[in-house]
């Protein structure tokens, strides 16, 4: 099997930074998984004793806590601060931006619209910075049923697709007097998505490598499927099924922003062997 | 010939208001034509002695001047005020809005983008309220060659097409960190355009009635042509050519926001007779 890598893929700035922070802070805990890649989380626990704690209440007794790349809700942060826990902030700077924007715009009286998944930890964090209840919509269809104000501020989960953000923006522009749009989709997301859009149109089969709960990985997979019916999402080489490759000659590979190179290399190696 | 009128067409709020103002102020002058309809301007001069003066310098000696629906540049207004001329403001309130927005946003450091025709009087007026040189673009293609700042405010000439404003907005959203979008396309324009979009898809021939220098009339004509190859722009019934209607059964009619009912009625009457 011939293999072609996407022009851009894999680790982004925020993930690299968070992993370096974790490796420098052995024996600490992170509140929720640091990044959405179970294999890398396993490695950090095994090699650096960085453990995952899901319950903010249980962290009280810990000496130090790493804040995950996705950020955490404002109240959780306040709770940790009140407890005197040492906070090591690995929130991606591109995630801090929508938090700050939502805080400022809601204070200025703008109705907040967040394009994102309400249950994703990044979005939960962003929501918590709004002083008024924001509208959280995962699609244009969800927005169309909502009551809109005259002055609206729009931010996006950093890993969403730009064309879908533009659909939502266009709807707001035609229904509101003023729309203040902050394109908070991060550049790595945008570049990785563009690269998958290109590559999936020239291959027989696409393999996206990444965590199954990783938002940016799922978006890459969704884009790949649009252009290449034979697209698959795998967490590592064990998920590869040789029957997928029967009759295929060229396989495209991309990987989410939280997928480490060692996992991608193993997947690539195994596919080359088919 | 059967005739079908568009669902919305003709005189808008701002034009009606301006004509009422002119009729109440006999023997006055307007700085430039009050509205972009030569036949109606002739009627106002003939019946109310409201004359058109193109040169702001020549108005010095006049007792009172009517400001046209399109507004005038800030400096011209200041000149008239300094001269002690009595100002009767017939600027459409929907045109005052982009003037105010551009003044405020440029003062706050936003790069101003105006979607409009730089030579149209409305746009000249809006430009004059920007404290920094604005980008004035008549199309997305014109915008793509420009250097953009991080924080941009976008307004539109009131008579432009919404889908084209959305194209420009989308480009800005993908190229700037913050885009503040004020949808200043007026409702009458939007409704008239939507109605032409619908009607031109169900008729054999479309006739748009309005002044040939009227921006909103030209937009209606452009939309009609998109969907109905046999579309024509006429200023009044004299422009109708019977050969256009040969072999046609259903004629759609719409009219610009500055086209008076009496002109439209004459056009309709003549078409019914073909």
Automatic annotation (TrEMBL), chains A, B:
The keyword Lipid metabolism does not apply. Isopentenyl diphosphate binds at residues 36, 70, 120, 214-216, 258. Its EC number is 1.17.7.4. Keywords: 4Fe-4S, Iron, Iron-sulfur, Isoprene biosynthesis, Metal-binding, Oxidoreductase. The active site is at residue 122. GO terms for biological process: dimethylallyl diphosphate biosynthetic process; isopentenyl diphosphate biosynthetic process, methylerythritol 4-phosphate pathway; terpenoid biosynthetic process. GO terms for molecular function: 4 iron, 4 sulfur cluster binding; 4-hydroxy-3-methylbut-2-enyl diphosphate reductase activity; metal ion binding. (2E)-4-hydroxy-3-methylbut-2-enyl diphosphate binds at residues 36, 70, 120, 158, 214-216, 258. [4Fe-4S] cluster binds at residues 12, 92, 186. Pathway: Isoprenoid biosynthesis; dimethylallyl diphosphate biosynthesis; dimethylallyl diphosphate from (2E)-4-hydroxy-3-methylbutenyl diphosphate: step 1/1; Isoprenoid biosynthesis; isopentenyl diphosphate biosynthesis via DXP pathway; isopentenyl diphosphate from 1-deoxy-D-xylulose 5-phosphate: step 6/6. InterPro entries: LytB/IspH. It catalyses: isopentenyl diphosphate + 2 oxidized [2Fe-2S]-[ferredoxin] + H2O = (2E)-4-hydroxy-3-methylbut-2-enyl diphosphate + 2 reduced [2Fe-2S]-[ferredoxin] + 2 H(+); dimethylallyl diphosphate + 2 oxidized [2Fe-2S]-[ferredoxin] + H2O = (2E)-4-hydroxy-3-methylbut-2-enyl diphosphate + 2 reduced [2Fe-2S]-[ferredoxin] + 2 H(+). Gene3D superfamilies: 3.40.50.11270, 4-hydroxy-3-methylbut-2-enyl diphosphate reductase, catalytic domain. Its cofactor is [4Fe-4S] cluster. Catalyzes the conversion of 1-hydroxy-2-methyl-2-(E)-butenyl 4-diphosphate (HMBPP) into a mixture of isopentenyl diphosphate (IPP) and dimethylallyl diphosphate (DMAPP). Acts in the terminal step of the DOXP/MEP pathway for isoprenoid precursor biosynthesis. Belongs to the IspH family. This is 4-hydroxy-3-methylbut-2-enyl diphosphate reductase. It comes from Helicobacter mehlei. The gene is ispH.
